[in-house]
């Protein structure tokens, strides 16, 4: 079950991007670093220490789970997968962000709308 400590709270951008990257399927740490860079168009660059601390927290919360290991060039790579609980929390956060974007766009449209002659609309 997804930990209450993250449910209903604003998610940090790196966490959102890690979960978003895992929504496409299981990945290992280095692949997550690369995918987060792609998803954020280079604006978020995860360092290994930051990533692995986040992965540990997300595993502990039940949002992601270990999904096996592979050995590449003699190095073990642990893969992680998004859980159903993690997908639900990611979807809720995406909805929250979308609602906030609509609020901002609506306000900007009002600001940019021409005013009627003779006073406020």
Descriptive key words:
121 residues; Arc Repressor Mutant, subunit A; single chain; disordered N terminus; 3 strands; three-stranded antiparallel beta sheet
Description:
The protein has 121 residues and is an alpha+beta fold. It has one domain: Arc Repressor Mutant, subunit A. 54% of the residues lie in helices and 16% in strands. The chain contains 4 helices and 3 strands. It has helices at residues 13-23, 29-39, 48-61, 84-112; strands at residues 27-28, 64-72, 75-82. Strands 1-3-2 form a 3-stranded antiparallel sheet. α1 crosses α2 (29-39). It is elongated. It starts with 12 loop residues before the first helix and ends in a 9-residue tail after the last helix. Mean pLDDT is 89; it is low at 1-5.
The succession of helices and strands, N to C, reads: HEHHEEH
The CATH topology name reads: Arc Repressor Mutant, subunit A
CATH architecture: Orthogonal Bundle
* Main β sheet profile: 3 strands, antiparallel
Rounded radius of gyration (Å): 19 Å
Strand order of the largest sheet: 1-3-2
**Which outline best applies?**
elongated
What share of residues is helical? 40-55%
> Unreliable runs, pLDDT <50, ≥5 residues?
1-5
What is the residue-mean pLDDT, rounded to a whole number? Answer: 89
CATH class: Mainly Alpha
CATH superfamily: Winged helix-like DNA-binding domain superfamily/Winged helix DNA-binding domain
Number of strands: 3
Whole-number total of structural domains: 1
User: Which class best fits the helix and strand makeup?
Assistant: alpha+beta
Strand content: 15-25%
SS field, number of helical segments = 4
Amino-to-carboxy terminus distance: 50 Å
């Amino acid at each position: 079950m997804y930990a209450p400590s993250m449910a209903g709270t604003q998610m940090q951008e790196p966490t959102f991007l890690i979960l978003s990257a895992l929504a496409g399927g299981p990945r290992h740490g280095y692949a997550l670093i690369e995918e987060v860079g792609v998803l954020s168009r280079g604006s978020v660059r995860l360092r290994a220490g930051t990533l692995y601390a986040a992965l540990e927290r997300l595993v502990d919360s039940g949002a992601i789970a270990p999904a096996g290991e592979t050995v590449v060039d003699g190095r073990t790579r642990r893969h992680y997968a998004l859980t159903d609980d993690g997908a639900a929390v990611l979807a809720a956060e995406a909805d929250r962000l979308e609602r906030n974007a609509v609020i901002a766009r609506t306000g900007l449209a009002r600001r940019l709308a021409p005013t009627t002659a003779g006073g406020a609309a």
